[in-house]
Amino acid sequence: MSEKEAILGIDISKDKFSAALLKGEKKSQVKEFSNNLEGFEQLKQWLEQNQLEKVHACLEATSTYGHSVATYLHSLGHVVSIVNPARIKGFAQSRLSRTKNAQADATTIARFCAALKPQAWTPPSPEMAQLQSYSRRLRALEQMATQEKNRLKTTVDESLIEDIEAHLVFLETQIDNVKKRQKELLNEYSSLKSQADLLTSIVGIGEPTAMTILAEIGDINQFSSARQLAAFAGLTPQEHQSGTSVKGKTRLCKIGNPHLRKALYFPALSSIRHCSPMKDLRERFLEAGKNILNTVTGCEF
């Protein structure tokens, strides 16, 4: 890394984050900030004090805690990368890192960024971010409704039954409201509507699945190939073989977006039953010795 290059590693948490600054081969500087606008502005001042107009910032894709600081840094013209935590963990293990705290993690993230130069991240458009919020909220509400329905089957206390039924009515109302907002959003933005229409033209994909796919993928142009998109969803094969003694089964690599992976599973089953090309693809997988589950996941992309 040259003197002119500057790397910012960020270890994020709910209320605060640690930032490690690497400039050339110098020892990293580490500072802690609040995870709010005041903290972001202090981070900006810190970078200015170090006479840095542009840095390559890197942070892990952990929940939504890092989205605000990532968007803020991107708006200032900095390069931002959001990477899978498994990559950072593997990098730390390769360096035999033993210390585990926020400051050390931020430094590890910075060194990972300096060594591997991860792909730059682009914030989703406001409408895409809103669609993702609706999609994930809908899934959470549906999961809660399923849990309550299961409780209803095993509950014998009449007062509790009434309580569960009332909660179910509330959840169903909320589900309908979110679905309505999703449709309004699609109708408001023609680009989203046209993409959703293309997706629903595929056998096995209905409107709810199409909206989840759109929300989780974002800008599809960020993927240069179908295989890269499959890896993003965690749908690529993972072999476990070594020499002549280790011959494990090839399994699905689940290092990827779980929301997208789950949304594609049942459409894949449907396409295998009703779409001739997908039936043929599955047969080729079976002939190649793939197990039944892998043939389904292989048909998801």
From TrEMBL:
<dbReference type="GO" id="GO:0003677">
    <property type="term" value="F:DNA binding"/>
</dbReference>
<dbReference type="Pfam" id="PF02371">
    <property type="entry name" value="Transposase_20"/>
</dbReference>
<dbReference type="Pfam" id="PF01548">
    <property type="entry name" value="DEDD_Tnp_IS110"/>
</dbReference>
<dbReference type="GO" id="GO:0006313">
    <property type="term" value="P:DNA transposition"/>
</dbReference>
<dbReference type="InterPro" id="IPR047650">
    <property type="entry name" value="Transpos_IS110"/>
</dbReference>
<dbReference type="InterPro" id="IPR003346">
    <property type="entry name" value="Transposase_20"/>
</dbReference>
<feature type="domain" description="Transposase IS110-like N-terminal">
    <location>
        <begin position="8"/>
        <end position="158"/>
    </location>
</feature>
<dbReference type="InterPro" id="IPR002525">
    <property type="entry name" value="Transp_IS110-like_N"/>
</dbReference>
<keyword id="KW-0175">Coiled coil</keyword>
<dbReference type="GO" id="GO:0004803">
    <property type="term" value="F:transposase activity"/>
</dbReference>
<feature type="domain" description="Transposase IS116/IS110/IS902 C-terminal">
    <location>
        <begin position="197"/>
        <end position="279"/>
    </location>
</feature>
<feature type="coiled-coil region">
    <location>
        <begin position="131"/>
        <end position="195"/>
    </location>
</feature>
<protein>
    <submittedName>
        <fullName>IS110 family transposase</fullName>
    </submittedName>
</protein>
